[in-house]
Amino acid sequence: MNSSFETPYVSEEVSPWWLKGLAIFMALISIFMLLSVASGLLTPIFVDRLMPEDFEEVNPYPEDGTDEDKAEWNETNEFWDDMVEYTDEMMGVLKFQAAHSGILAIIGLFSVPVLWRGDRDLGIKLVGVWIGVNLLGGMGLMWILTRSGLLMPEFATGRGGEEWGASAELMETITLVASWGQIIFCNICFLGILGLVASKSKPPTMLVSGTDVPPQS
Description:
Blueprint: H1 17-50, H2 67-116, H3 120-147, H4 154-157, H5 161-200
């Protein structure tokens, strides 16, 4: 006696626009990443040309000024030197960010034609790699900023008295929590989009009936 059974059957064909839509999304993200690369490379050049390293180029030393004028100039000069040093370090961070954005742009642009032509498996894998690189790069950037003290520089927190120092520490904590929250939230959203497309673009299940299965003894 032959047994018959059926597995779930999806009669509707999968819309190709799930993968094409993801391709469009990755293309837009890749354009944004290319703009980030340009910004990360050009900003240090402009800053180097426009921002003088010596404070005397901005405000000459008051040779004929009072002792108060000279003391004020020395204090401002010290602040300027600290700010220039901080800016130089931030330019290094921008270059790291440009390199990270460049890698993301390459992966993203490579995934666009793959997704557009309907290569589901490879396209989803590429987007998954993109999300992984994006997460690791964000974590690396936050590690650099916190370890080097660039998130809230010492020259900004060490001035203004004890009350300002406490406020600066609070702002640093809020900025740190908000930055990590943004990284986690954005990547969860990317994973959600990828999961939705992977689910909706899954090939339909084929019908299997008992008439196609050899009788069991």
